[in-house]
């Protein structure tokens, strides 16, 4: 295993019931990559994330994190996770933005210790990185979906993770703000050196921002640089998705439009 390998899955298979939902997955994520994970609905993307986070155990195969078998791995502060449903606080939720961000430090300081000035500074620094420092004392429920999602990224950043995993983070983010959101992720990757793994349905946009793409449908059908992924043919894509995935080319850019039911 290379020193820079952060996640390593070897021959991983998993089923909840009778049917395999993940089958023979071999995948390595290396330090510094921004990896987009794409695939049709129900293709096992979220389950793969759960396998990486130890939330479910492989039926076959093995998972290693930061060079350690999952069983021995215990430095969970190194991994930040932002889920699909993170941005769903309603307007009555009684917490300020900075309070939400500070909860990201709980595993570091222990649930019953008090937050001190240093922790507040850490939370403010994380809010600055995501461009939300002006909202520190706003109520979390009053923010838009995109703003809430930035706050959840800040919460994941306070423990200085080496790897940030995002499961469809742009769901609920206003279309106008999706590009800005990708730019923020690219900045975290380039400037903060955080390795990113992002599950998305947005196959057109992800290739413009991610360094690498994994395309799965139970097993991995493609894993390579984003540039190479753009060469993945329409026919390959249609076969994988089981229905036409129309590809649109705008100038040099290459965008795909998904036709989901
Ligand atoms: N807790 C569960 N119990 C039983 N089956 C499950 C469970 N979670 C997911 N599944 C099934 O496992 C398969 C893979 O689901 P998963 O959520 O991993 O796919 P996905 O690619 O993330 O899907 P989507 O893009 O629609 O979010 C699906 O058939 C799903 O119905």
From TrEMBL:
Give the Gene3D superfamilies listed for this entry: P-loop containing nucleotide triphosphate hydrolases (3.40.50.300)
Q: Which InterPro entries match?
A: AAA+_ATPase (IPR003593), ABC_transporter-like_ATP-bd (IPR003439), ABC_transporter-like_CS (IPR017871), Metal_Ion_Import_ABC (IPR050153), P-loop_NTPase (IPR027417)
Q: Which GO terms describe its molecular function?
A: ATP binding; ATP hydrolysis activity
Indicate whether Transport appears among the record's keywords: yes
* Keywords in alphabetical order: ATP-binding, Nucleotide-binding, Transport
Task: Answer whether the UniProt record assigns the keyword Endoplasmic reticulum to this protein.
Answer: no
- Which part of the chain is the ABC transporter domain? 7-242
Under Pfam families, the record lists: ABC_tran
Q: Which family does it belong to?
A: Belongs to the ABC transporter superfamily.
Protein name, per record: Zinc transport system ATP-binding protein
Native organism is: Halobacillus dabanensis
């Amino acid at each position: 295993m290379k020193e820079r390998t952060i996640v390593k899955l070897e021959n991983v298979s998993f089923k909840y019931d009778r049917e395999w939902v993940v089958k023979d997955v071999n995948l390595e994520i290396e330090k510094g990559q921004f990896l987009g994970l794409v695939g049709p609905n129900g293709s096992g993307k979220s389950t793969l994330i759960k396998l990486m986070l130890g939330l479910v155990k492989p039926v076959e195969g093995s998972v290693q994190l930061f060079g350690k078998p999952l069983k021995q791995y215990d430095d969970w502060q190194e991994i930040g996770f932002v889920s699909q449903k993170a941005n769903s606080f309603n307007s009555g939720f009684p917490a300020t933005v900075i309070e939400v961000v500070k909860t990201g430090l709980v595993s570091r300081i222990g649930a019953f210790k008090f937050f001190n000035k240093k922790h507040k500074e850490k939370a403010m620094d994380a809010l600055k990185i995501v461009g939300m420092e002006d909202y520190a004392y706003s109520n979390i429920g009053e923010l838009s979906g995109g703003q809430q999602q930035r706050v959840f990224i800040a919460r994941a950043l306070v423990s200085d993770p080496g790897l940030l995993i995002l499961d469809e983070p742009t769901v609920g983010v206003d279309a106008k703000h999706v590009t800005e959101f990708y730019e923020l992720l690219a900045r975290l990757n380039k400037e903060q050196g955080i390795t990113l793994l992002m599950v998305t349905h947005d196959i057109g946009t992800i290739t413009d921002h991610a360094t690498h793409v994994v395309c799965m449908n139970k097993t991995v059908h493609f894993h390579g640089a984003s540039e190479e992924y753009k060469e993945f043919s329409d026919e390959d894509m249609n076969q994988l998705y089981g229905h036409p995935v129309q590809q649109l080319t705008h100038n040099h850019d290459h965008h795909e439009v998904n036709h989901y039911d």
